[in-house]
Amino acid sequence: MNNSLKKSLPLYTFILPTVIFVLCFMIYPIVYNIIVSFQDLTIKNLNTGGSFIGLKNYVDIIQSEKFFIALKNTFIYTFACIFFQVVIGYLLALFFNQDFPFRNFFRSILLLAWMTPLVITGTLFKWLFDVDYGVINYLLMNIHLIDNPINWLGQESTALTAVIITNVWVGIPFNMILILSALQSLPGDVYEAAKIDGANKLQIFAKITLPLMKPTLFVVLVLGIIYTFKVFDIILIMTGGGPVNATQVLPFFGYEQAFVNFNFGASGAVASIILLILMCISLVYLYLIKKEESS
Fold first, then answer.
1. What pLDDT band is residue 187 in, cutting at 50, 70 and 90?
2. Among residues of the chain, what percentage have pLDDT more than 70?
3. 236 in a domain, yes or no?
4. Is the bond leading into 187 cis (omega within 30 degrees of zero)?
5. At how many degrees (to 10) do helices 103-115 and 65-96 cross?
6. How many domains does the chain have?
7. 225 occurs within a structural domain
8. pLDDT digits (tens, 9 = 90+) for 225-260
């Protein structure tokens, strides 16, 4: 064994656990899922293994009307959640970037929404939106915005909105912390120079803050899209995909294929489609980052 190999061997030993973890718990499940998506694997032949059927699972899924409902709901849900989470998170970050008494205390209180398990959050908001004893209907009726209680989770027109509101409440603190950290790391001398040159607050925000925050906002958007796109917990707890598929999303559609219909091949196809969509989003992010660095 030569000297260079002796020197590099400890380095490889240190990264070996990480490599094993990634292979066993990330690469292998993804590869296995892709293989299953090309098989006729159901509960009937789960022990013996499914036969290869090519793209049939993908064709059946894409031809399903429920798939397009889930796809549409997923994009509406993701876009709405990300928009409100980032905008409100940005405004709160600007607010908490100011110096005022008990700033850290109020910031830590806001973090409770993000730290609370989604099972508890979903159950809490299910009670809040309840048609009979929900606090939201009670408040809206007291301020005379509505005359009768709204069945938020029981009708098609409002169910998805209620779920979006829940997830926005969960995601705002995460966006706020990331954006606030970036704001606090911005160079102060640039702002001092802008003030000396006579720039007002709006000009400083548009010409200095936003351009310097662009890399952080890209990260926040991509992380938020990936996290939101694979929503499952809140949907399962609050609506179960109903009523009449009003809150049906792709991850929940894949769950139903596997654990309701016991069609594991079709479920694998749905999961592979989700993976492909998220990979395309990640590639767009990498392209934008590369373009930003080269400019």
1. confident
2. 97
3. yes
4. no
5. 170
6. 1
7. yes
8. 998 998 999 999 999 999 999 999 999 999 999 999
Return the structure tokens found at 69: 């409902």
pLDDT at 172 over 70: yes
29 pLDDT higher than 70: yes
Cα dihedral angle (260, 266, 271, 272), rounded to 10 degrees?
180
The structure tokens listed for 179 are 């954006």
Question: Would you state the structure tokens that stand for residue 151, as one six-digit string?
Answer: 């069945």
State the virtual CA torsion across 211, 212, 215, 217 in degrees, nearest 10.
Answer: -70
State residue 263 phi and psi, 5-degree precision. -105, 90
Please write the tens of the pLDDT for every residue from 72-97.
999 999 999 999 999 999 999 988 88
Q: Which two tokens stand for residue 4?
A: 């260079």
pLDDT classification of 2: cutoffs 50, 70, 90: low
User: Would the pLDDT of 295 be above 70?
Assistant: no
Answer whether residue 261 is part of any domain: yes
Cα dist from 197 to 191, 201, 205, whole Å: 10, 12, 14
Is residue 70 within 8 Å of residue 293, measured between CB atoms? no
**CATH code of the domain containing 101:** 1.10.3720.10
Q: Evaluate the CA torsion angle 271, 273, 279, 282 in order and state its sign.
A: negative
Dist. CA 17–CA 222, nearest whole Å: 28
Measured CA to CA, the distance from residue 98 to residue 184 in angstroms comes to: 10
User: Tokens 């299953």 identify what position?
Assistant: 36
The answer to whether residue 131 sits within a structural domain is: yes
